[in-house]
Design a protein that fits this description.
Layout (H helix, E strand, L loop, with lengths): L1 H36 L7 H30 L2 H24 L7 H26 L3 H97 L3 E5 L5 E4 L1 H7 L3 H4 L4 H4 L2 E3 L9 H8 L6 E7 L5 E12 L5 E10 L1 H52 L7 H28 L8 E4 H18 L3 E6 L5 E4 L1 H17 L6 E10 L2 E8 L6 H6 L19 H11 L3 E5 L7 E8 L19 E5 L3 H13 L3 E5 L2 H10 L4 E4 L2 E2 L2 E2 H8 L7 E5 L4 H10 L3 E4 L4 H15 L8
Parallel strand pairs: 8-10, 14-15, 14-16, 16-19, 19-20
Antiparallel strand pairs: 1-2, 1-6, 3-4, 4-5, 5-6, 7-9, 10-11, 11-13, 12-13, 17-18
Helix pairs in contact: 1-5, 2-3, 2-4, 2-5, 3-4, 4-5, 10-11, 10-16, 11-15, 12-13, 13-15, 17-18
């Protein structure tokens, strides 16, 4: 601080010296202005010479006239010589006048007029003198007396006029000189005043700036003291160095972690106070302070270093370093910040361990869901296949058809519950698969009404459909749309009792938008339920029946949003019903999507690998009735023997088998045959499907499978495989 004050005092002294120099310079300008006012006589030398020459010319002319008159009166030869000399001298003066006249302010024409007049007078007088020399003195005197008086007066008058002109010119020059001198004086004084004013302002500004610097210096010193106190009290260790990399400050945390006190650390190289080594091999690492001084850039936070304390122990630390810069960017030191990272690293290890356990638990959950799905789906397959057999071949009387539909619907509900478990897993993992096409929603609403009509009728619930939308085509997956409508309608049915009503409706709130609503007059929802109705496993809870898994609505919303739509729920409160509304952008009308209709196909040699006896028997029977030659096998070993004994056109294979997997069998089968293969399994997760398709299966079907769907897939796989089915039409 003393150094700063000393520098400021020296700056103030320099400002004062410059102020004194400016005052002296101003006084010099004043003296210069006064000196400029003096009128140098040298400026009038031309005028004086002209006046002298005019006087000399006049005197010489008068002397010549006097000597000529004397010669006329006395006829003395000396007067004649004097006349000649004075005449010549007059002419010399005239020559000099012609030369100096401009400097004296006389026009050359005026001198020429004087010369002409004098020459005329001298010439006339010379002629009189020559007449007297010829002996005619009386005549010469008489002529001289008659002519000379006017001529001599004219010469004198010209001379006097020229003298006045010269005096006037000299006065004009004097006036102009004095005026110019005043103007220069004013300019000098004005310039001096302006310069002095600017200098005064500059000095004032400099003094003010110095004062501000002084105040800033005091504030900076105060801030440094505050910073020192702050750095001494913060939780991180702080080490500050100069431009040589020597320590100038360490805070209390640095003292505690490194073992160096402030007094011991000051002026020591930072690499001695903060020596770091590699965590794995204990190799010495480069000094971060020197790295910053060398590059001028801050170092990234390093978290794999160990600090060797003064006692020789090793401490895990996170550290970073950055340059300390002046206002002009000059580096004046480095600040190094570090902290004990032992606890953090231990926490991170615990988190990583927990993460691995959670991932393992998630994998175990997925494996459990897959196994549960497989075990639940497998017994449904022969039931659904048997129902399909009865329907296709009319093996039940008409009065049993309603019961058959009831059984089929319940099997479908059971399969839907299983699918919901897998769908929610797909949604969570972002692996939801869609096959969008142009589909008309109105027929799907009609199909939904037909599906739930018997259930509503048996429970005394009214079900109405109002499919009035004129723009009813959307780009979506038909199966998923059907699933959405079933989930929402099934939810409405679940919360309705006898006497309630369910309405299915479609409309166009505006061109290009399709709105589908499912509303009921059932149990309704409280506000808290409305806010959570689309959360997984939310099963109502407002006093009404709430069976099921609570996955239908969350899956419905996910499917709607995945296909560019919106879904929201409304209710005026408990006992006042609920309304679910979804909207989609419409598209131009396209070809309608029709479900495949099973029909007998040409005979294929099919190898059916299925370990569930009922499923194998029913599928073999149904496929046989379609005209196919089916060879059922219960294990991989049995299927391998069958493949060696016969050739097959198609393989339908379960994935989970007693002695391995269907994927393993397919690898062996591919060594001797290129026949297409279809996976028919209870494992339906995205990962299961990916594994099957990657192994070479042409299609993946999840149990329970509708016989119509199986027949359609057989036909599609047949077309893809490149061999022709015999036509039976």
């Amino acid at each position: 601080m003393r150094a700063n004050l000393r520098d400021l005092n020296q700056s103030v002294l320099r400002v004062r010296l410059w102020s004194a120099a400016a005052a002296l310079a101003f006084l010099g300008c004043v003296v210069l202005a006064v000196w400029n006012r003096s009128f140098p006589e040298a400026d009038f030398r031309g005028h004086r010479a002209t006046l002298d020459l005019l006087g000399a010319t006049s005197a010489a002319f008068q002397s010549a006239v006097a000597n000529g008159r004397g010669f006329l009166l006395r006829a003395d030869g000396s007067d004649y010589e004097a006349f000649q000399d004075e005449s010549n001298r007059t002419r010399r003066f005239l020559d000099e006048l012609e030369t100096s006249a401009p400097e004296g302010g006389l026009p050359v024409g005026q001198i020429a007029e004087l010369r002409r007049t004098i020459e005329e007078q001298l010439s006339a007088l010379g002629s009189f003198v020559d007449l007297a020399r010829a002996g005619r003195s009386e005549a010469a005197i008489r002529l001289f007396q008659d002519d000379s008086a006017g001529g001599i007066g004219e010469v004198q008058s010209l001379v006097n006029r020229l003298i006045r002109l010269t005096h006037d010119s000299r006065e004009l020059v004097r006036f102009n000189a004095e005026r110019d001198a005043w103007e220069r004086t004013v300019m000098i004084l004005g310039t001096a005043l302006v310069a002095f004013g600017f200098l005064a302002l500059a000095i004032r500004s400099a003094v003010r700036e110095l004062s501000l610097q002084y105040v800033a210096s005091l504030e900076a010193e105060r801030q440094r003291e505050i910073l020192s106190v702050t750095l001494a009290s913060i939780g991180d260790a702080v080490l500050i160095t100069d431009t040589a990399g020597r320590v100038t400050f360490v805070n209390r945390v640095t003292e505690q972690l490194s073992g160096w006190s402030l007094a011991e650390a000051v002026d020591q190289p930072a690499s001695d106070v903060f020596p770091i080594v590699d965590e794995e091999n204990r190799d010495v690492r480069s000094d971060p302070v020197q790295l910053v001084l060398r590059t001028g850039e801050a170092t990234q936070v390093s978290s794999d270093s160990l600090l060797r304390t003064r006692s020789g122990e090793f401490l895990a630390v996170d550290h970073s370093a950055a340059p300390i810069r002046e206002a002009d960017g000059t580096i004046r030191g480095v600040v190094l910040v570090f902290r004990d990272s032992s606890t953090r690293r231990e926490t991170e290890q615990n988190l990583l361990s927990s993460k691995r356990k959670l991932e393992e638990a998630a994998k175990a959950k997925d494996r459990f869901l897959a196994m549960l799905s497989h075990e639940l789906r497998t017994p449904l397959t022969p039931v659904l296949a048997t129902l399909s057999d009865w329907e296709l071949h009319g093996r039940l009387p008409a009065e049993r058809q309603r019961e058959l539909l009831m059984v089929r619907n319940n099997v479908a509900v059971q399969a839907r519950l299983i699918d919901d478990l897998l769908d929610i897993s797909r949604i969570v993992h972002g692996k939801l698969e869609l096959s969008p096409v142009t589909v008309d929603v109105n027929p799907l609403l009609e199909a939904t009404r037909e599906l739930f009509a018997d259930a509503c009728r048996s429970r005394g619930i009214s079900l109405f459909l109002d499919a009035r939308a004129s723009e009813s085509h959307v780009k979506a997956d038909p199966a998923r749309l059907r699933q959405i409508l079933w989930n929402i309608t099934g939810n409405a049915l679940k919360f309705c009792t006898r006497g309630d009503r369910i309405d299915l409706a479609s409309g166009n709130p505006q061109s290009g938008r399709l709105r589908v609503t499912v509303s009921d007059t059932g149990a309704g929802m409280s506000q808290s339920t409305r806010e959570r109705i689309f959360e997984p496993f939310m099963r109502g809870g407002d006093g009404a029946s709430a069976d099921g898994l609570g996955l239908g609505l969350p899956i419905a919303r996910a499917l709607v949003e995945a296909q560019g739509g919106t879904l929201f729920a409304e209710s005026e409160g408990l006992g006042r019903g609920a309304r679910f509304t979804m909207e989609f952008p419409t598209v131009a009308r396209g070809e309608p999507v029709r479900p495949p209709i099973p029909s007998p196909a040409g005979a294929l040699r099919i190898l059916l690998v299925e370990d569930h006896p009922d499923t194998a028997d029913v599928l073999a029977s149904l496929l046989g009735k379609f005209g196919h030659d089916v060879r059922p096998c219960r294990s991989i070993a049995e299927a391998n023997r069958a493949a060696m004994e016969s050739e097959f056109d198609l393989v339908i294979c379960d994935v989970g088998l007693p002695d391995g997997t269907g994927i393993e069998f397919l690898r062996t089968f591919r060594k001797t045959s290129t026949a297409p293969a279809v996976a028919l399994t209870g494992y339906g997760s995205p990962a299961d499907i990916e594994r099957c398709m990657a192994a070479g299966f042409a299609a993946h079907l999840t149990k329970p499978i509708d016989i119509g769907r199986l027949d359609a897939v057989i036909r599609q796989v047949d077309k893809t495989a490149g061999f022709r089915l015999p036509s039976t039409h």
